[in-house]
Amino acid sequence: xYIVRRRAWELSERFVTPEHxxxxxxxxxxxxxxxxxxxxxxxxDVTTNPxxxxxxAITEEKYATTYNNxxxxxxxxxxxxxxxxxxxxxxxxxxxxxxxxxxxxxxDDLLKxxxxxxxxxxxxxxxxxxxxxxxxxxxxxxxxxxxxxxxSAKYVVFQxxxxxxxxxxxxxxxxxxxxxxxxxxxxxxxxxxxxxxxxGKPLPKQNGAPLRLTLPWKYxxxxxxxxxxxxFTEKRPATFWxxxxxxxxxxxxxxxxAVPHPRWSQATERLLGSDERIPxxxxxxxxxxxxxxxxxxTNEKLFM
Length: 304
Ligand code: MTE
Fold this sequence. Notes:
This protein is of the alpha+beta class. The chain has a single domain (2-294), classed as Oxidoreductase, molybdopterin-binding domain (Sulfite Oxidase, Chain A, domain 2). The protein has helices at residues 19-34, 61-64, 80-83, 107-112, 140-147, 184-188, 240-244, 287-290; strands spanning 47-48, 92-97, 103-106, 117-124, 129-139, 155-160, 179-183, 193-198, 201-202, 212-214, 227-233, 268-271, 277-279. The strands form two sheets. Strands 1, 4, 5, 8, 9, 10, 12 and 13 form an eight-stranded mixed beta sheet that branches. The chain has a five-stranded mixed beta sheet with strand order 3-2-11-6-7. A hairpin with a 5-residue loop joins strand 2 (92-97) and strand 3 (103-106). It is globular, with a radius of gyration of 18 Å. Bound molecules: ligand MTE.
């Protein structure tokens, strides 16, 4: 991102064919079972939420799982093999800061307390590549509810894993750990999602297993992978990419085709697996759901 090696992908404006979701449901349930994390959640309850249809074809799985951004494993897009070295079981999440009861919760325990569903979302990287993928997971608002923040909390801050398997952490330039954050109002929006699966299977490590934030109306760098800590603060956090390049990767990072990145246009995007460029949409096409979050915020750089 800071480094100019951005690619773009695009995809034609075909309608999604969700048949594979039905086909994959069995795989999803089997896969989730294999991780032994959902025994009491009721696996048959994982349903595709029809409210989230992306209006374009689903990206082929092989592209979404082999072309990744995960700087902890290096700057290359080709980190998927290295990412397999991350141990994702056992896993726990720490809730701290302005919460009623700071605590650490095991992933299995957490997943027993949320309702899993499947959503097909568009994803738009700030580098101008994009994809459309079916995530399994649960609403971000459910995670916030579990954490039980105090009324004084204004921001939700996500910190991601730092593990010995991650060679990229040795790069001195980057301000590790990877931190991202949203306002408490953004976190309450129904689109915010915590992904635990992809294409009807457990979330691949390269895509952020075991828990990854998904904020489809924002540039992809906001969607932090491998979350280990969720903090609630009064003060806006210094996020990873904003610390590196504040004029290029702002805190808000809402997708807007009319606001160029200082070094490239954001008007179009390239879908993974294709050379075709398609127009980028305001809020990545989710304006109806999220534009209201930003009304009146005239002094903020909301779109970069
Ligand atoms: N999360 C962590 N921990 N480290 C990262 O480098 N990259 C971000 C985001 N989450 C990143 C991260 C960026 S720039 C993008 S575009 C998406 O992950 C890419 O997600 P994908 O590889 O699953 O497509």
